[in-house]
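Example with several molecule types.
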Amino acid sequence: MPRSNNTILLSPEELSLRLGKVVDLMKNESIDTAVINDNANIFYLTGRVIDGYLLIDSQTSSMQAFVRRPSDISGPTTFSIRKPEDIPAIAAENDISIGDKIGLERDNSSWTTIHRLSKVFEGREICNIDHILMAARSVKTPAEIKLIAASGIRQSEVYRKIPSLYQQGMTDLDFQIEIERQLRMAGCLGQFRIAGDSMELFMANILVGDNADNPSPYDFAMGGHGAHPSLPVGADGSVIKRGQTVMVDANGNFTGYMTDMTRVFALGKIADDALRAHECSRLICHTLAEIARPGVEAKYLYEKAIEIVRGENLEDYFMGHRQHAGFIGHGVGIQINEHPVIAPRSRDILREGNVIALEPKFVIPGTGAVGIENTYVVTADGPMQCLTTAPEEIIAL
Amino acid sequence: MPRSNNTILLSPEELSLRLGKVVDLMKNESIDTAVINDNANIFYLTGRVIDGYLLIDSQTSSMQAFVRRPSDISGPTTFSIRKPEDIPAIAAENDISIGDKIGLERDNSSWTTIHRLSKVFEGREICNIDHILMAARSVKTPAEIKLIAASGIRQSEVYRKIPSLYQQGMTDLDFQIEIERQLRMAGCLGQFRIAGDSMELFMANILVGDNADNPSPYDFAMGGHGAHPSLPVGADGSVIKRGQTVMVDANGNFTGYMTDMTRVFALGKIADDALRAHECSRLICHTLAEIARPGVEAKYLYEKAIEIVRGENLEDYFMGHRQHAGFIGHGVGIQINEHPVIAPRSRDILREGNVIALEPKFVIPGTGAVGIENTYVVTADGPMQCLTTAPEEIIAL
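Resulting structure tokens for the full complex:
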């Protein structure tokens, strides 16, 4: 990684592109000043994580950083603070405008944090800024797409090695540990950023046989019992047996930007219905990749997927069997659950530069989970470009 | 893990102990009803994670669960909901009292979540409940101490193997990956629960040589440059060289409850000052373990540590060199940063059943980080009992 003590690690052109998108959306809602504190948003706007606050002025399209930690960074627009209450005086001394309408990260910051910041900026109108950051971040710049594509290449290389990691008698957890190690050796950062108060996962969701059908409290596409009730999702210690599938959905964060990819492995011959459902998942991905382009409604992609599933009479198994997920795809980037959301009531409309993970999956009782997940970029005139290129067939272990 | 579809995995006696502490603290502040949604608090009160809300009635010392997911759990006090807005009607139908003063998790839930819940319970007085949960959770029950001790045994076993994992020419990251694998093979869940909006770490903080002196944005005891600016903490790819220390502070969560332990390894002979500082850290831990008992102020432990450090003229290196951490210890349990906090302005007073990680560490320029971290239980009449038992000396690689 580059060693720089500059607050902004992005090129001036890249910063300008990202800031421009945020500022345009701020102007639409007449927001004068955005105050950014969330790690994912700070990484988006600086290329690094700091403990502090970014102030964005929509009038001048400028950004200042008020930094608590680390102690060793600086830049032309960087001020050192001990606490957020220091910001107004420093801003006044340095002719930094703080407008009348202030956007705070109400979706991502705790009530206590927002309450405290609202007092710092007392007397001004406070509104939410998170939906604006999520909207800006949903349309990736060419540089961001390069970082996501780089993750896709490395994740795909590791996935190609997965069959060689299997040894007879392994449990799902044994297998997962070897996959984790290969990912880490290939440069995976491990970190798995998720938006939302209560989403949790460690490194991978690996589902063997009927464990795929165990409902989880988390809002992922698939569930699984998990190794412990404190983290009830994914692998549960099941031994991998003949006739069962092993679904691998493992961390693709190699660059601060991630790809999301799922592949299925199997020991011995599996049931015809499972093979058929797996091919149906591939067909859905390929079909949606063809029709997805700027202007298409996200919910249309969902409807198209359901149409294909119904044509195969596989509804009972789609997106889970005992418990069904409510979406078949999601934006991905700095976090695993960005926009657009591919769901029946989604109001998202596809735009060039969206990066979308499609994961039409099935749970077949007695066999396990099947289906693939790929990460795609929405291009100017379609089809979507696939960034996750490991073989899509069910691979024998 | 036990496979049960009961909402409450705790024994009735254990639930009663935990709920009793929460209810007593609620009564002190005349809070009628607590609404609990945070995963760590839900795990504390049920022994599992659910997507939903626990309602605690302080008058009757009773708790009801309103569960969105998973779909397959039930119990005598469990109701299925789709959204929090469903709660009041279900409560009314089932004669579940919702009082006039409601405690919500304002420190741990987003502003948007609290705003939504405040509307669900409109017309009632809303206050914070998080400090009450943190206070209750800071005094562990005997069953919780057993779970923490079990983590300590397994973490200590892995730490004893660490020297055997080293191979010549390894970077800090190579070494970390092998340590991660051993932890996972020993049953480490990987998950590292941290309270607070912006704390992030993956599995371990492993610091080699002068990387220990790189400031980080995160509020941990030590920093490190990290492998990527999206997660700027810990190992940065430094090759482990002769005369440098390798500080290992790795994930101790084996039971949903964690221990926190740090040990130092070294290649070849290291500087006398570093050896002296390491012994100073051990002396601080042993001294504080002797004097810590119920009724002692947390800040007194901090002051005692500083006194010992001054006696050795090591202030410049204590808790970092270029950037200093503001605490030398913290409570640990379901999350890594619980109460009490061992810091100069801490208002915490030790109680029997507190579990405290003490980590008086030094950064010696040219050598690296030294010092130990142990997890201790505060006993009725002292000294504290140590749960992390790997050898404390600097171990040769």
